[in-house]
Design goal:
Layout lengths: L2 E12 L4 E4 L5 E14 L5 E13 H10 L5 E14 L5 E14 L12
Parallel strand pairs: 4-6
Antiparallel strand pairs: 1-3, 1-5, 2-3, 3-4, 5-6
């Protein structure tokens, strides 16, 4: 199995509730997805919006935090490492998977202003 890693910090919206499982060694694992939105402009100045879906995986304490505090639709900032790996499926085909290994995750809470019209 080949693995490449890059450190990242990214904001987005959780696409699923965290799914909690345990490894064969008994370590807690949380899996979820993150919708990271992007705004691009081409050379002609035309705007284009889109989103990237990122697979998240967290272990132990971070998995506990995700299980207790996070749900689908919550805005978060995620810090971790991108991991790309390849593996062989049951038919012998090489498959590729990209995941963000979560080191820290922070919910983004909206600020409340003293006056409703302040932006």
């Amino acid at each position: 199995m080949n693995t490449t890693r890059q450190s990242v910090e990214i904001a987005g919206i959780l696409g699923t509730d965290p799914q909690i499982t345990q490894s064969t060694g008994g370590r807690k694992i949380a899996r979820s997805s993150l919708a990271a939105f992007k705004n691009m402009t081409d050379q002609a100045g035309t705007g284009e919006k889109g989103k990237n879906w990122i697979n998240l995986i967290a272990w132990q304490g971070v998995a506990d935090f995700m299980e207790k505090n996070l749900r689908k639709g919550i805005k978060v900032i995620v810090k971790g490492q991108m991991s790309s790996r390849s593996y062989e499926d049951r038919e012998g085909q090489t498959r590729f998977r990209e995941e963000l290994i979560v080191h820290a995750i922070f919910p983004i809470r909206a600020r409340r202003n003293s006056t409703a019209n302040n932006i």
